Amino acid sequence: MSAGDSIAFHARFSGDRLALVELASGRRLSYAEFDTWIAKCARFLIAALGEPFGKRVALLARNSINLLTLHLACARVGAIFQPLNWRLAGPELKALIADAEPELFIYQDEFEAVAKIAMTGAPLKRVMTISGRADELGEAIGEASPAAPREIPEDACILLLYTSGTTGRPKGVIVTGRNAFSTAFNFSGIAEIAPRDVALCDVPMFHVAGLCGLARATLLMGATLYISDRFVPAAALKLLSDRKLGFTHYFAVTQMGQLMRADPSYKSSDLRHLKAIVSGGAPVPPSLVEAFLADGVPFVEGYGLSEAGTAFGIPPDQNIIRTKMGSAGVPAMLIEAKLVGQDGSEAGAAKVGEIWVRGPSVTPGYWNQREASAKVLTQDGWFKTGDAATRDEDGFYRIVDRWKDMFISGGENVYPAEVEAALHALSGVVDVGVIGVPDPKWGEVGCAFIVIAAGVKLTQEQIIAHCRSQLAHYKVPKHVRFIEAIPRTASGKAQKQKLRKLWSAAPI
User: Fold this and answer.
1) Which of 297, 305, 388, 496 shows its CA 20 to 30 Å from the CA of 239?
2) What is the pLDDT of residue 490?
């Protein structure tokens, strides 16, 4: 048993405990069974790759037991798992394949069209499929004999997580064994996951929150993980409200929380038994937190990123959540944090600064991008997140906005996230994104892109009047655009560069 291998540990001491339930198939594995299945997958990887250490294994598939198995088997033999975002187009996936150069590519038959584009010209040694009819990966694992554990250095890369690309070309974040373990430890501590708890994961496992956060944290603590291959609001509500299943934890980006509350099947009393709904990936409007709290549900805002895993969080205590609403919380147990001003000095109390983090969950850099790595990592291990925040007297951090998204209007700093929070409080607004755009008088002013609910009528004048009642005059958007949807990444972050392109195509 290698150090940090939680599945092997729980298989030895509580092997009969239920580890996984795959909702699509009904498949259930105890910790002992899951440990054996990973060991068999490790043997398959050795046969498929020869010496697997350092070789990449790409997977394009929805959440499943075999996705987690492949990830953990790669970690046991030193291969590098590359889970691909199935929401991307073929040419985008092709660029990621070209960057990582995997030797083994496995895809779900649902994504065959884009997978064929992604494979074009790639020097792949083996290609396999996953499907309900003929699961090549599952068959190969089932036919293999269990492999003996190997000693893998904890600083070896075991995972490549590609950033969502809000600023351009996606970057492959190197995740070591130490990074993945530390992220799971931080997540479990903040969410207070215990060995007898039960979590539901329907956020994609190509993202750090789904794979290294909720999934690995649940398994680290010897708890039970239910795996759903997609988010459907009514289905999630039905599962979470079933007291017989005993769910205690759930992860939902902001938009998922909003869709659940908007679903006709939502009942205020159905989720009160949960220990926590953890949220992250994008700013959470206080109005959403307040609505869940009113229903007795601890909706916990946190902060993390692919490069550092789980970094901040609020304990799932309703009094603390209410008192610190809008905060991303305090640094996780294995995280150091500080705020750095534009002049490079540490920002004082209540001053805005860029968040820097340091700890064993922080990446050593980006795959094949030394210059990009050097820009964000200091020699003494600090990672510059690019996010602006303040810190209160109790040490709680409040995310203000992306450092680069701030704009200056008439000499005053404007943080779009603050304007977006005010707009979310307006009845009828479903989603919103705010950017700074050129203005001959003020230098820059705000443009709000608004998505309104079906059947609701809102005018630009009503939007601006609402903002004037909530915000200082220089923060009030001068322009309003109504659109069908805010472009967002898989983690829920608004893709501001796409909004800027919409503005540039037809400036007012």
Assistant:
1) 305
2) 67
Residue type, 188: S
Spatial neighbors of 372 by CB under 8 A, at least 6 apart, are 171, 366
Q: How many CB atoms lie within 10 A of CB 224?
A: 25
Task: Sheet containing 56-60: give its strands across.
Answer: 126-130, 104-108, 56-60, 80-83, 157-162, 172-176
Pairing of strands 18-22, 27-30: antiparallel
Domain boundaries, the chain: 1-152, 406-505
CA distance 334 to 470: 38
CB 434 within 8 A of CB 463: no
CA distance 202 to 192: 19
Q: What is the distance between the alpha carbons of residues 58 and 109, in angstroms, rounded to a whole number?
A: 15
Residue spans of beta strands (DSSP E) within 169-275 = 172-176, 198-201, 224-227, 249-251
What topology is assigned to 406-505 in CATH? GMP Synthetase; Chain A, domain 3 (3.30.300)
Residue 181, class by beta-carbon neighbours within 10 Å (0-12 exposed, 13-18 middle, 19+ buried)?
Answer: buried
Asked whether the beta carbons of 367 and 404 are under 8 A apart, the reply is no
In this model, does residue 312 exceed pLDDT 80? yes
Three-class secondary structure of residue 136 per DSSP: helix
Tokens 């075999």, residue located: 66
Integer CA distances (angstroms), 110 to 58, 131, 367, in order? 16, 8, 28
DSSP letter, residue 111: G
- Could you say which DSSP state residue 329 is in? B
Mean pLDDT of 303-323: 93
As a whole number of angstroms, the distance between CA 238 and CA 265 comes to 8
SS3 495: coil
Longest CA pairwise span in the chain (Å): 72
Are the CB atoms for 22 and 10 separated by under 8 Å? Answer: no
What pLDDT band is residue 166 in, cutting at 50, 70 and 90? very low
At residue 347, φ and ψ (nearest 5 deg) are -75, 140
Closest CA to 172 of 383, 370, 457: 370
Residue 3's pLDDT is 58
Determine the length of the chain: 508
d(CA 181, CA 176) in angstroms, rounded, equals: 9
